[in-house]
Amino acid sequence: MKHNRLVLFGLLLALIASASAPLRAQEQAPSGKSGGLAPMQPKQFPVGVQWVLVTLNGKSVGLNQPTLQLDAQLRMRGFGGCNTFSAVAYPLKSQGLAVGPLALTRKECAKAEMDLEKAYLLSLRTTAKWEEREGGLILSGQSGELKFERALF
Fold first, then answer.
1. 137: which of 92, 110, 126, 146 is 20 to 30 A away, CA to CA?
2. Distance between CA atoms of 54 and 138, rounded to whole angstroms?
3. Which of 54, 57, 81, 64 is nearest to 150 (CA)?
């Protein structure tokens, strides 16, 4: 008799646990249909997109616009205003970005182009955060802010 009560009690506990499992799942992961918010997914850095620099620290860069692209293998390439460059970049949590040392060609250009390139590459190398806003890409760090638009070519 005592054994039958234990078996019955165990079955009753199992029944209660199985009946409440769907309720716990709904509480932990609310669906859009019940009015709850779905959990936020982390943003992914836009790889494979060619970007053209529009402003550097709020100033327009003119016609000789530097470019940037990050491929799926995390290789960053672009044009600095005079020279081409490459680096390894690592998208991090919370929309962080780490850019490794830059390799670049050694072409000499006019002073204005070289100054733009130096400021651009310094800002790019010290970038800490990225965000997409209104179809553009913004990179920011200790040396300034870079605003890009998608390239048309």
1. 110
2. 10
3. 54
